[in-house]
Each structure stands twice: as C-alpha cells, then as structure tokens.
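Example record for the data management plan.
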Amino acid sequence: MKVIERYIFLKGLLTFLATLGGTMAIVWVTQVLPRLDLVTSNGQSAGDFMYLASLILPSVVPEVLPFAMAITVAQTFASMNTDSELVVINAAGSSRWIVIKPILILAALASITSFLFANVVDPYSKLEFRRLLASARADLISLVVQEGSFRQIEKDLYIQIGERLPGGDFGRIFLADSRQDGADFIYYAKKGSVVEDGDDKTLVMNDGVVQRKASNGDVSVIHFDSYAFDLSVFAAKSGGGSMYAKDRDLLYLLDPDPSDTAFQKKPQEFRAMLHRRLAEWLYPIVFALIGLAVAADAKSHREGRIHPLVTTLALALLVRWLGFFTGNQAQTSPLFVPLVYAVPLLASAISVWFIATNRTMELPVTWADSLMSWSRRIADRMAFLRIRGGTEPGQGQAS
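Corresponding structural encoding:
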C-alpha cells in the first residue's frame, strides 16, 4: 500500500479497534449479568465465572462487527473531512480508490473474522458453555449445599443437609421432590454420599424413609436401607438435550444428521440457519460501503444537515433489520431464503452506485429536518429541566 493508503488503514484500524472494544464491552456486560446467578448460585469460583463470560463473547462478535465497521468508516472520514485531509488528497490528483482501498481491506478482514466466529468459534463455545453449566449443576450437592440450609436444585426440588461427615459423607438428608404431577415425595435419610461413575453422579442415601403423598391425600411411607437418587439428569437438563440449528457449525448445517430429533422437527430452521451463516458474514463489507457512500466525498461536513455518523448508522440499522426479518421469516417459509442474500447484495449495489457516480448517500431532507427538530426539542427540554431544578450554571437556590 502507498503511504496515504497505510495512513488511512491505520487510522481506520485504530478507530475500529476502539469502537469494537467499547461496543463489545457494553453488549458483553448486558449478556453476562443475567447469567451471573448461574455460577454464583452453584458455588463456582470467580475464575469459572470469567471463563463462562468469555464463552459468551464469540456469539457477540458477529453481531457487533458490522456496526463497529459502520461507525469506523463514518467517524474516520468525518474526522478527515473536518481536518481537510480528504480535500488535500483530492487536490493532489489522487483517485478515490486510494481512499476506498484501505477501508475495503479492513472490511474484508472484519468479514472473514465474522465468518470464523459465527461458524467455528461460536458453536464450540456454546458446547463448552453447556458443559460448564452441566458440571456446575452436577457438583451442586457435593460442593455447594451448606449444613442446615435449604437449597433449590431445580424447580420443585429442594434439599437440606444436616451435617457433613468425615470422608465427604452427609448426615441427616432431607429431599423434597414435587416435580411429578399428582404426587409429592419426601425423602429422609440418616446418611448419604455422592457416588461418581464416569460422568454419572448419584446421591446414595442410607437408612431412611420415603413418604409419598398422592393428589387425593393418601400418604404411604416406605423404609429403605439404601436409595439411589440420580443426579446426572440435572446435567442433561442444563448441558445436554437437543442441539438446535443455532448451536451447529457450518459443516453440520451443510449435511445434517437425518436422525437428529431437532432437525426432524424443524428442518426448515436448519436450512434457514445455513443461508443466514452464508450471508450475514458479508455485513461488515456492506456497512463499510454504506459508510463510504455517505462520508467519503472530499468536502467539509461542518454545514451538513446531519452528521454522517448518524446517517450511516440509520441506514445500517435499516439494512440490518431487513436482514433479521428475512432471516427469521426464512425459518418458516423457503420463499424468504433468496431475500436473505438479496438484502446485503442490494444494499451493497446501491452503495457502490453512489460511490461510482460521486454522489453522497444522505437521508431524505424531511427525515433530516425531523431528526434535527426532534434533537433540538430534547435539548431545549433538558435545559428547561436543569434550570427548573436549579442545576444550570449560575443558578442559585432562593434563600
């Protein structure tokens, strides 16, 4: 690359990394916090929580990359226009390709990264996420349950351990199970322990009774010397079960297992996910083209009706919404499958036409005027509230 191209590429790369880091941090926090109880309630360490949180990142990256690219292009060229750098480049007789080339290289790298994360890294991280939750749930009794406290293992299933004995055994076990319709079970045992057989874990209770109460009020009590309560079912519920289309990698989507129960129930969902995977990795390039069409012309935007970043994001949100809509509709109707590809390709074609004809892609004048009027009303309203609250500089409280 030439010196100017390297300058634009590095300037865009730094902006892209800063934007991507900040955006991912916000999205990551919003995704992690609702899952905090999955680790803390199961007594896992801070390291386990950070590992679990890192497994969420691969699913965030493909969604954030396109918007980070749009912000990067718009902000980079808005800054260069403000500093008259694009005007100087144009006055020196340089072609527009010198400005466009480094951005397209950066967008291509972002698209390749999006493809790898969506089709390789994310499916693996989801499998590992399930395994971690299964391990946390299976270790609940042996590691977490405190002496004398009731803990909920899952809905309608509670346990209390009276004491911990030497060797890892438990004393005075109480277990209440109301999961079965029409009957409630209560288990009492003097002693018990968790027995592991490979990946299977069983709570073995010794010298106790099981009380069964039917829905009609009848109660039966059975004494037992030894009773095994399977814990592996909790691992299956939290970490196993059916793998859905979104959990599969690209190779599996290309050739699904005909015996897969999830595929048998919703085959069109697997086909739709395949087409989404093959189309959505293009969005960083699409959004880069939109940004180039909006902000890459060599003129100052100081007197523009609206900042190019706002225009770029508004158009990008519209295109991405259309992509989500067609992708979701394709899960139920094959007629929408061509539209999954048509949305990014059409948006790219329109952007390329604007770039090739030296036109600037802008929001309609009425839209821009409405946005500016709306933003001014909000600013005026906030200023009024500050003055009314006595927080405006120079305002004091009456004595």
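Summary line stored alongside the record: The longest helix spans residues 97-138.
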